[in-house]
Design goal:
This protein is mostly helical. It contains 9 helices and no strands. Helix 1 crosses helix 2. The radius of gyration is 16 Å and the shape is globular.
């Protein structure tokens, strides 16, 4: 019988950073504000006791790895064109027709696959799937899984091949 493993404090902090990053990237995509302005808004949020903890940005900020949040948001914004170029050939429709939250998740996953090699590709894919389950449409997680899996094969061929042996 296997025991359910609880995430460590560091894992929870990284997951919270990714959750906030996806929400920030979504806001950045939708409003056209600078990524720095969006990040500043997130950091200045005040607690709202009427919201559940996972919906309350202030509460999530308390546990999030804020350095990672900054890295993710700034990195995706800086490399957006290259990330979009890596994602586009794998899509079944034009990039502009993607759901905005799925696009934010795919950009985040593509950034981690391309620029954060210390994060195992399977972690990147799993985190993308979990984010899509939390924030995306009904079957969005399946779509995100398929795209990130294909992207991992392209960007991390050696790592993927070693894992699949």
């Amino acid at each position: 019988m296997s025991e359910s493993r609880r995430p460590s404090k560091n894992q929870l902090a990284r997951r919270a950073a990714r959750e906030l990053a996806v929400q920030g990237l979504y806001q950045w995509q939708m409003t056209g504000k600078s990524i720095s302005a969006v990040e500043a808004e997130f950091r200045s949020q005040v607690a709202d006791d009427d919201l559940e903890d996972h919906e309350n940005w202030h509460k999530v900020m308390e546990i999030a790895d804020l350095g990672m949040l900054h890295l993710l948001m700034q990195g995706v914004a800086k490399h957006r064109n290259a990330l979009d170029d890596s994602i586009s050939p794998l899509l079944d429709r034009p990039l502009g027709e993607l759901d905005a939250i799925e696009l934010a998740i795919l950009r985040l996953g593509a950034f981690e696959l391309a620029y954060r090699l210390e994060v195992p590709y399977r972690v990147v894919i799993n985190e993308g799937v979990e984010l899509a389950k939390s924030f995306g449409g009904t079957d969005g997680h399946r779509y995100v899984n398929g795209i990130l899996d294909k992207l991992a094969v392209r960007l991390r061929a050696t790592e993927v091949a070693a894992r699949r042996r």
